[in-house]
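Researcher: Quick sanity check before group meeting.
Model: Go ahead. Protein one:
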Amino acid sequence: MKNHDLSSGSMLKTLLLFAIPYLIANILQSLYGAVDLFVVGKYCSAESVAAVSTGTQVTQIITSLITGLTLGSTILIGQYSGSKDFKRVKEAIGTTLTIFAAVALILTLLMLLFERRLLTLLHTPAESFGLTMKYVSICSAGNIFICGYNAISAILRGCGDSTRPMYFICIACVINIILDFIFVKYFQIGVSGTAAATVLSQAVSMAAAIFYLKRNDFIFDFKPASFRPVLYIAKKLALIGIPISFQELMVRISFLYLMTVMNSCGVYAAAIVGIGSKYDTFAMLSATSMSSALTAFTAHNIGAGKPLRARRALWYGLSFALAVSALFWMWAQWNPQSMIRVFADNENIITAGVPFFRSCSYDYLMVALVFCLNGYLNGRQKTMWTMISCSAGALLLRIPLVWYFEKHYASNLGMLGIIAPAVSGIMACYTLVYVLCEGRKDSIN
């Protein structure tokens, strides 16, 4: 798909075409954990489902930490590419890859050193503790590949290429699905097999990306001498990336605390929150993709002196995200049993999960509001607001509410499930007020 002029032409068509690459890439990437859980749920025990559920929540910490650096790389490389400063493009790519490699090694060391303590803090059920340890250990050993292919995708998007990242993610997804069935169904190595499939698929994807780019005369040559950080670029990456990483980490910590409470309720509750997180990901794909598209669309139109076009695009994007999320919400309200059976046939898991799914599914709608509003504000360079807003929602709302419900309603999974939509709803309200105030400024000016 080619780049589009976001400040002219049909606003709805331009916005949707720009969001499509993000949506496809996000769908493919979301299949990783979903397939792991699906295969384990079909061929392994409830303890294995709980292990993959908890282990996935832990490994997503890595994804949260590299999100900010990924965004920073895309922005910087995009700026240098737009100004035709190819020397700085090369320096930014070399800096990005070197920093990501260092981050991967540090995160691997930290995870291997502290995984037992972390899983203990999360109240991982005793029945699934050993299996969870195996899953996290194997996935942690593959951090270099996770960081590697995320870095390459960020670089390509910064260079204006949104299709090749999709291809590389597709390669990883297909290999992961094949290996999951081979390792779990035929080799019968369970949780370890799903983790190994994830790591190997990411390794092949990263290797394929590097091989393809070298064969096609990419601007960066991937020679050892080119992997060196440039100090001023590293500082810019940190300035842009650290606030986003901090925001993502705070949100992840708050959900890990929810996982801790659910783990305390037993292995079936632990399995349910893991299954629920997979549906969270898919139900919110339209919102996350549209949020990314709105950030770029808004920034482009603000720069072109068209703030009203940017604000109208927000309402179009928000309508699209809500419409898709509403389909998943209706499914959860109408037949949550069928949603759970996609990943697990255990009747105890299904019974425990029905009230949780019905209540937590309201978050699909609330998050669509929050994500799109935040994407618009990021495009207006209000990133400090979004960081403070999301961090406050995690630390001042979600964690205290989880603590309160743990003390009074620990055995009521339906009550615990309502926490996420309640927090998102509050955040949506005050963020909407802020957006309307910003819109009034535009009208005055």
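Researcher: Fine. The other one?
Model: Protein two, sequence then structure:
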Amino acid sequence: MLELVAASVPLALVASVPLLLAVQGELVVQRSGMINLGVEGMLLAAAFTASVTGTLLGGVAGAVAVAAIFGVFAIVFRADQIVTGTALNLLALGLTAFIYREIGSTAASAMQSNVIAPFAWIVSPLLLALLLWRTTTGLRLRAAGENPDALRSAGHSAAAHRWLALGIESVLVGIGGAHLALALSNGFAENMSAGRGYIALAVVIFGRWRVKGAVIGSAVFGIAAALQYALQAAATPLPYHLLLATPYVVTLLILCGVTGRVVAPESLGKS
């Protein structure tokens, strides 16, 4: 069994790329003071537009569209972020399913995951860590999530930095959605994001809003996915759907066992 798990780890790490990118994007947004529950809808929209256009850029465009709607309601109109994100998830789920059924199929082209996976696991975390903790822009972005009034007093716009955070999330989630549709699948399928956005929200908390913790949390999910593949390869007499749930169950159990005081950004979720 251990040999099967070890053999499945490389595949699991590649399969975890959409989740990892969603986690990193949501981490940046929450550091700026927003809870974007609509990251699930962003992933789904990105997967759909990427499969229709057959390009990575198409995936980013889909994520940008959903993020822009969220930003208008959450930043401009100061609507409840949880309600807005939930509504966007339902909109993305229904709209992508409707259009997919209308057009019948999507013309996807293959994407090589040997480029995206190193970017997601190595390049992107390093860049985000440098941005958030080694630049003035990152300091101001984190200030927008901790004390936006102090940021405004210093002559800087909290709203502008939150838009910046949404832009970063859009790029990362867009790449993740495109990878899901073009590298891990042969095109779009209804609800193919399969709850990755919701797991991303939990992993951000597990990682204590830090890039290192986000990578570790995503790796835990990847290892749990490797366990699922190993169990399927070993012809375990367990129902197939139960095996599919293994990564989610293991991840949630670990999250429930997190000890210590978790301190969120002070203004997280406050308009």
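Researcher: One line on it for the slide.
Model: The two ends are 49 Å apart (CA to CA).
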